[in-house]
Write a sequence for this structure.
């Protein structure tokens, strides 16, 4: 049993969750930036993490998963600035199921991640009221993912491992 935790991150939030998940994995394991892997070969279980960018799973992540997921046990973790429980999150979780369709989909963890200040500043300057509203919400994301989210990610990792044993 060998597990890979791989992730994309721009400001460190998703990496924080990746490290929490990695810490809970029993047995042989690797943690790698998705930029540094070329496939999922040699792993029985793969955790793939990413931030939501412009209302979707980043294209490089969904493409990589679709091309490599066949026959693999796979779970996802994502961070987003959108408040937890908001409507779009369900659709993003649904998208993870879709991109894993040729593999064995095990679940998706999601939590809020801090919106970086330069992005808040950029959004606040936008003429688009939707973008501006998103920027206004930015300060409420400060400090996320916090210790309680990190703990939930650890519990998620344990639950996923129990499914493949
Ligand atoms: C360019 C950009 C676009 C983003 N678009 C969204 C979005 O559409 N919805 C959302 O909830 N969060 C959005 N975010 C916020 C990130 O998903 C969130 O801050 C995430 O935790 C960043 O993870 P990272 O630190 O691992 O890069 C965006 C962030 C950036 C930088």
């Amino acid at each position: 049993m060998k597990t890979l935790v791989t992730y994309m991150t721009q400001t460190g939030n998703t990496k924080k969750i990746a490290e929490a998940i990695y810490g809970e994995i029993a047995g042989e394991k690797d943690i790698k930036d998705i930029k540094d892997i070329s496939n999922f070969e040699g792993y029985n279980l793969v955790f793939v993490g990413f931030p939501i960018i412009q209302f979707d799973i980043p294209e490089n992540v969904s493409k990589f998963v679709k091309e490599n997921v066949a026959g693999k046990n796979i779970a996802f973790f994502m961070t987003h600035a959108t408040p937890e429980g908001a409507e779009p999150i369900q659709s993003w979780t649904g998208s993870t199921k879709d991109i894993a369709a040729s593999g064995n989909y095990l679940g998706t963890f999601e939590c809020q991640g801090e919106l970086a200040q330069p992005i808040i500043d950029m959004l606040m300057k936008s003429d688009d009221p939707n973008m501006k509203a998103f920027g206004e919400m930015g300060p409420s994301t400060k400090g996320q993912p916090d210790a309680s989210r990190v703990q939930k990610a650890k519990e998620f990792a344990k639950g996923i491992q129990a499914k493949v044993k």
